[in-house]
Amino acid sequence: MTQKPLMAINRRFFLIGSAGAALAACANIDREAGFGLDEGGFGNPTMNNHMVQTGQLSLAKIMSRRFHAEVPSMVNFAFDSAQLDATARDILRQQAHWMRQFPELRFRIYGHTDAVGSASYNQSLGMRRARAVQDALVSMDVPRSSIEAVVSRGETQPIIVSEGYEPANRRTVTEISGLVRRATRMDGEYAHILHRTYVSGAAGG
Q1: Which of the listed ranges 23-27, 124-128, 176-180 does the model predict with the highest average pLDDT?
Q2: Domain that holds residue 138
Q3: Number of separate domains in the chain
């Protein structure tokens, strides 16, 4: 006696569900195929390429993020010193290798100090550190023209705010400052620069 009403109820819910699905499909009939799929970032390269070529996004900024992700950008110094130790030189070799792959890019080196000493002395010390890094990179076959400037920040931009001896603040930071020229046409320059492979690395060099 109860089986027939139960079957009718199930059939009723099936019809309601089918109608809802049909309505949803009709509501989205003007959307492109696959609009609801999560593209997982597949479209990002195309979007970035368009934004770079139209001036909405800086290629230098994209490459700067890549530089910081792939290479240590900072080296540290002993107190009151602009001498590069073995660890610093190892980091600079990594920087130099990366920089040689992208001759279109220009770099700037910032020298920093801790807060011990006068502001004027620390300004001078920061510059000596920045120049030491520049000279080391040039000795590692980075063209001097690739480094457009060395700048001293002295004690004005500490990583750790401290009035005393703070090793973390005694550093230089290498940054991408721009390109030799900006791409103005959809000529593949963006893809050529951004996706260039490290041929020497692939060959075991």
Answers
A1: 124-128
A2: 58-202
A3: 1
